[in-house]
Design goal:
Blueprint: E1 2-9, H1 15-31, E2 36-43, E3 50-57, H2 60-66, H3 70-79, E4 89-95
Antiparallel strand pairs: 1-3, 1-4, 2-3
Helix pairs in contact: 1-3
Length: 97
């Protein structure tokens, strides 16, 4: 398993909107992708305009393959209006277990 760890700055600092969108439909869209095992989205504390994404994938290859799926497209549709705040973002994968 590979854990995607992404810290993203929400557009206009609207981390609350991004977390809400992910909790209402964005996480389900990602979970519909083959190879996606879990999704957790958390608001920042010291930087409240940031959001932490923790997504467990079967592998980095599964993550990359999912990018062509309907579920991933739906996730982008739901979440992308909230992406693009000051401070940018970062994403890496880490081995689990």
């Amino acid at each position: 398993m590979d854990l995607e760890v992404a810290i993203l700055a929400a557009k206009d600092g609207n981390a609350e909107g991004l977390v809400k969108a992910m909790n209402e439909a964005g996480s389900a869209a990602l979970l519909s992708c083959e190879g996606c095992n879990s999704v957790k989205v958390l608001p920042g504390v010291e930087n409240p305009g940031n959001v932490l994404f923790l997504v467990e994938w079967e592998s980095v290859d599964a993550h990359n393959a999912a990018k062509a799926s309907e579920g991933f497209a739906k996730f982008i549709e739901i979440a992308s209006p909230f992406f693009g705040g000051e401070g940018g973002g970062s994403m890496q994968h880490f081995k689990v277990g």
